[in-house]
Amino acid sequence: MADGNIVTSRRFFLFASAAGGGLLLAGCVTPPDTTDGAPAVAAEPAKPAAPPINMDHYVAIAPDGTIRLMAKNPEVGQGIKTMLPMLIAEELDADWSKVVIEQADADAKYGNQIAGGSFATPNHWVPQRQVGAAARLMLIQAAAARLNKPVEEFTTEPSMVVHAASNTKIPYGDLVADAAKLTPPEVASLKMKDPKDYRIIGKPMRNWDSPKIVRGEPIFGIDTVVPGMKYAYFEKCPVFGGKVVTANTDEIKALPGIVDCFVVKAGGPIPTKMGLLDGVAIVADDWWTAKEAGKKLKITWDEGVSKDESTALYDKQAADLAKAAPMSNLSKVGDAAAALKGAAKTVEASYTYPFLVHAPLEPMNCTAHAKADGTVEVWAPTQRPDMGANGAFGLIQQALGVAKDKITIHMIRGGGGFGRRLDNDYAVEAAAISKQAGNIPVKLIWTREQDVQHDPYRPGGYHNFKAGLDKDGKMVALTNHFVTFGRPNDAGVMTLLASANSPPQEFPANYVPNHSYDQSMMMGGMPTGPLRAPTSNAVCFAYQSFIDEVAIAAGKDPLAFRLELLNLPVPTGANRTGMNPDRMKDVVRLVGERSGWANRASLPKGVGMGTAFYFSHQGYFAQVAKVKVDNNGAWRVLKVWSVGDVGSTIINPINAHNQVEGSIVDGISEMHQKITFDKGRTVQTNFYDMPLLRMDYAPQIDSHFHITSFNPTGLGEPALPPVLPAVANAIFAATGKRIRSLPVNQNELRWS
What we know:
The protein contains 17 helices and 28 strands. It is α+β, with helices and mostly antiparallel strands.
């Protein structure tokens, strides 16, 4: 099988049941080059080492003691390639210095393989440890049989089975051949470690790929090289879903260095998700030649139904819909309308946020070889190789007409994802171009401009709030008329675009005595999808900013007001699910203490502190931001204090703090960004008009975890949402000017 130079050509052939802990035995693999992936250097040819023996499809142990652990999920910078093997290694009682980690291919035997939703920790906390515990027990059983002693007399220490009574220690490598012949244990029989005995879990472990990244070794999708590979550039309609009418393909094919040029047809109706769209492919000996030839393309497009859409049109329609009766109700408790009429004071405000692009540093790319024998081999930096029609398998099956078992997908490390690589348009494009180019291997690379202008965007939204306060300043009612985007389904019924929702139970629903959340939809032709902390990254800004506004109107401390809301009894008819208010109260109190919230009145003019909290992706986070605003309106975040509760165990502290810090930087970046549309086209093209936060503007970050007794949960997303309203509320504290629309406009923050 052809294999990329960044993909190890010596694969595990590991056959077992999925991650429930059951184990089957088969096959073997060759040994690793080194423990850190660097090429071995020797004065003479190395003698062949005995191959590792598979304990299951996650664990293989070589006679020399090397332990190879398979990382099942895609790695896009979140550290999962290190974290999941840590769970196995802990219960295996492995000597971490002898561990080698390998990225799994996409394969049903591993169960769901996805980087998204912060699900990796909660979904794998138990099953991956069970894998390690089962392999450890089998090694103990092999030792007991060899010494003819009861299993109960044996323990382990790093990569050794120990029989204390006879002062015997047997390395795992000496036992693996016997252990691999045993019947795997039942999951119920496994005894897991006491957390006080952890040697690996909870310890800061360097990410497996870090040395390769520092050395500049080729490990990302964009680095992939396979024999005979050509390079592809693919031009799509600037309006989503547009069709090719004519193209000067013969003229392009005549250019030097060009291998082929042809029209790729999507077929079928305009897709509602990111898949194979109409376009023109240029295949060349090198990518630069293909890209430059793209400048000479002359394409006539049928721009379709979205050609007249624009941000200005969206804004006008949203304003009109906000004045009209809502189309539907999302949730309701009590009688909010009556409570507002009887309120001592009412507060009204509208909040908006724009479409956003994912903008990972590595643009979309994929290498694919649709072979003449009907098989397809793909090297994809994907977050979701499978899971339905929009996974890479599903899209390639549909576009190329091949069965799933004819497709091999190698999951290559992605240079960032943030939800973008959950959609696999780049993968199906590469496969389709490879097939149409004559079954040659092709590496497709998008330009930065294509990446910005052909994204499944985080959708914008429009919130129209009204709150009622009683004579004591307590919130007694809250309404929100949310205006968002939809598209007719096959039955003609308007349905929400991806991630264009506002949760019906959004806090403080089911805390204030009366609430009513309503919704209206307008047509949106742009593709949308999940961005890091989907939905939460948007609605948290609106709700937690408005709660701050209500607190100020009530004459109350914004942090104390939030605690007051969290302490409210369950209203009649309400059904609280999801967030545990006691856990949230703890992190709110802690962040107040750590930030010195009570002393904020002493801050100089132009400097303010703001707070917010949020529950999402099973994580509890409260944050305080300190912001400085110059009198010309220029602003920057000086410091963010973050307290998170993600359960009892921080598996790898290095990555845990990285995820919190990265989320905070991402969130602040989003306050500078927007994607707008005109004539169905994306206006922004590159980082100069869609800026990322610069290093010299990144704030100090105080990241703290509040350890509780609950099972650990994920960290890829829950720290992001609260930083946006915390910063916006700090800007208000510094200037008296409320941020109700993103991105933040410097000109509106000028003060004298």
